[in-house]
Amino acid sequence: NAGVTQTPKFRILKIGQSMTLQCTQDMNHNYMYWYRQDPGMGLKLIYYSVGAGITDKGEVPNGYNVSRSTTEDFPLRLELAAPSQTSVYFCASSYFPTGTGNTIYFGEGSWLTVV
Amino acid sequence: GIQVEQSPPDLILQEGANSTLRCNFSDSVNNLQWFHQNPWGQLINLFYIPSGTKQNGRLSATTVATERYSLLYISSSQTTDSGVYFCAVGVGDNYGQNFVFGPGTRLSVLP
After folding, report:
1. Which pLDDT belongs to residue A81?
2. Which domains are assigned to chain A?
3. CA-CA distance, A29 to A100, in Å (whole number)?
């Protein structure tokens, strides 16, 4: 049982490049999330999904896109990378909504630098 | 939007000491959780505590929802307790899908 797996762990992008952060969970969770964490700050929600085919914006969605074609996978796409997207990205999942108090599981994070 | 504050921002303790971390929030919430981020970046859920008191080993948490604050107590601290402790509150529809995280308290426990 691997939990939540993110790849890549580290990446350097040039301004204007695009890339996809991969996230997979093997716990059959309905709910999946993408957060970003800027240095010295708490996490901010980018996008979330309540099930395959259903996604919605979080607090800071600009510059990102997501899709959820399967229960297991929730990739995050960065289009036209900008220095402001330099951050640590966390994927997370839970079986029930976070509001019910159900445990949320985080991946180990992806460190992205845009230069 | 809702504001979440945490204090103190930094805390240095000797092993074996006790500590209290505080989280204040500016509006009613339907969800409050405490997380620990270890020095390697891994985030672990500690407590779901929108109100009342819970205990788990050396850690306990209390939320007074009417006064909009929550406290995390760490007793007999160990070096493995080091890291950043985040308070997060759930707001909005869908059972609070949008977590708003506080800035965190960075705890260093010295041997």
Report:
1. 95
2. 4-114 (2.60.40.10)
3. 14
CATH topology of domain B4-110: Immunoglobulin-like (2.60.40)
Angle (nearest 5°) at CA B47 between A95 and B68? 115
Mutate to test the interface with A, among B99, B101, B105 (most CBs of A within 10 A): B99
C-beta separation of A59 from B92 below 8 A:
no
How confident is the model at residue B96, as a pLDDT? Answer: 46
Contacts of B104 in chain A (CB under 8 A): 40-42
Output the six-digit token pair for A47: 């996008």
> What value does the mean pLDDT of chain A take?
92
Burial class (CB in 10 A: 0-12, 13-18, 19+), A86: middle
Cα separation of A59 and B99, whole Å? 9
